[in-house]
Write a structure and sequence with these properties.
Layout lengths: L3 E4 L5 E4 L2 H14 L20 H4 L8 H8 L5 H9 L14 H5 L3 H17 L9 E7 L11 E7 L1 H11 L1
Antiparallel strand pairs: 1-2, 3-4
Amino acid sequence: MDKLIFKDEYDITTFTTNKDEIEEKAIDHYCNIGKVTHSPLSYDSSSPLREPWKSIYMPINMASQENINKLNRLITIMDELQEAIKDLPTKKAAEPNKISYEIIKQLPLQILEVILSLFNYILINEVTSEQFKLALLYPIPKPTWWNYDINHTRPIILSDCFHKLLVKIINS
């Protein structure tokens, strides 16, 4: 974004091209975009839930050992990694490291073995790459012309394709 229209603290519509101010306003906007203002209909955590919501949101007392073992297992089979890669979507944005799913699908077996070792290292040691923690947020204009008003955008977050691949394998 190189231009932005916003309401200042006096509710006056203001226009800026100042990069720092645009960044500050964008961060503030996206940090607060989902916040709910309290009203008489707002959820109150001190009030008990009614059925059917009460039973739906009841905490699970104990996860089965079988399910815990599934989460704690290593990715031991190359076929599992290759199957997950085969099912990756195409024509998706490659951010933040610019390595796309199309590139991952073309990797030779030797590189896939390194990726498999990396994923297992992450699972064994319960650590993740700093790169996995990075994501890029882009404001995408809604169907109408946004006219430099951030309220007429929706956020899209792009994260590392290898991170998404690991999550896909864990969730399957």
